[in-house]
């Protein structure tokens, strides 16, 4: 049976300001990218989400980002290597501590927002994030954009990498994501999103904004948790994949199982 992982960005509420429906999403996804406090999230809220993830046996990843609360981590930044390596270690370490208190563990790292898009093709910042991960825990899996140069760069450095596709984001013909500043960058129709993800799993292809088909080799599907219809989209995608005979399974479980075989 073909399997795929569903992931979502969670733990992004800040004090009295809610962001998304984390509890509902944790009942749908198999992996949760948990904010680490730099682009969003506060310790008490992050801990609560981690406890719920542990209760539901959802795999947990560190959703690290630029130090940019005001911009929600979506503004491009140019930190020094020392800063970015340190920030990477700091964020993962903080989440590891909270996860331990919640009775779970951090199994992977997924950069957020502008940092994610930058390291996809910026070899210097990618090297800094890779160095930070390796310095703290080289067994952590890096989640990255399918087809991006960072995938091979991280693998060459010795990290295990899982590639992901975005359910609700439009793609350019070169495999990059359409900028959020452009119209149509985010797709909102749950049924259309579900059908394109089933096709991605079955055929490993997605239609870009210019109408061309592009190859996507992904073992995880991201559904953003901060959009108004996030839960409806996630449920529709899950139900369509299950109806199509696709098994939903955390990639971290699959990788650990392969390592134990």
TrEMBL record:
EC number: 3.5.2.9
Reaction it catalyzes: 5-oxo-L-proline + ATP + 2 H2O = L-glutamate + ADP + phosphate + H(+)
Record keywords, A-Z: ATP-binding, Hydrolase, Nucleotide-binding, Plasmid
Signal peptide: none
Source organism, top-level taxon: Bacteria
One of the protein's GO biological processes: carbohydrate metabolic process
Presence of keyword ATP-binding: yes
Keyword Hydrolase carried by entry: yes
GO molecular function: 5-oxoprolinase (ATP-hydrolyzing) activity; ATP binding
Database matches in Pfam families: LamB_YcsF
NCBIfam families listed in its UniProt record: PRK05406.1-3 (NF003814), PRK05406.1-5 (NF003816)
UniProt similarity note: Belongs to the LamB/PxpA family.
Assembly with partners or alone: Forms a complex composed of PxpA, PxpB and PxpC.
Entry function: Catalyzes the cleavage of 5-oxoproline to form L-glutamate coupled to the hydrolysis of ATP to ADP and inorganic phosphate.
Listed name of the protein: 5-oxoprolinase subunit A
Organism of provenance: Sinorhizobium fredii (strain NBRC 101917 / NGR234)
